[in-house]
């Protein structure tokens, strides 16, 4: 299963970089590993991956301190207006975050933001 998880090399070349936008810092190797925090992809899978993800501070400032999920449909079954407001708030925050990424790219700040896995 690929889903949104990484357990394979996306490029055979070590001279290229895979840009991997993701909703969290942790990359889950397989779907069944999502509940096993110690499971991580092999180093040879991520050695050419540049992962972009929101900071913990960004996520903490979202409504409820988390990124919305499909579970919100169950959580707010009796309050769809709240669910819609939260999702719209996250979309707006994500657009600002995207703008910040563009600014960081244009001003050459990316090398200062890179951290090893």
Description:
This protein has helices at residues 43-46, 56-60, 72-75, 80-106, 110-113; strands spanning 18-21, 49-52. The relative contact order is 0.13. The model has no long low-confidence stretch (mean pLDDT 86). It contains 5 helices and 2 strands; from the N terminus they run E-H-E-H-H-H-H. The protein is mostly helical and 117 residues long. Helix 1 links the parallel strand 1 and strand 2 (49-52).
What secondary-structure arrangement, pairings included, does this model have?
Layout: E1 18-21, H1 43-46, E2 49-52, H2 56-60, H3 72-75, H4 80-106, H5 110-113
Parallel strand pairs: 1-2
Query: What's the main sheet like?
Result: 2 strands, parallel
Proportion of residues in extended strands: 5-15%
The class by helix and strand makeup works out as mainly alpha
Question: How many structural domains?
Answer: 2
- Unreliable spans: none
Please state the overall shape, judged from the principal axes of the Cα atoms.
Answer: flat
- DSSP strand tally: 2
Q: Radius of gyration, Cα only, in angstroms?
A: 17 Å
Strand order of the largest sheet: 1-2
Q: Give the helices and strands as they follow along the chain.
A: EHEHHHH
Share of helical residues:
25-40%
Mean pLDDT across residues:
86
SS summary, helix count? 5
Ends distance? 22 Å
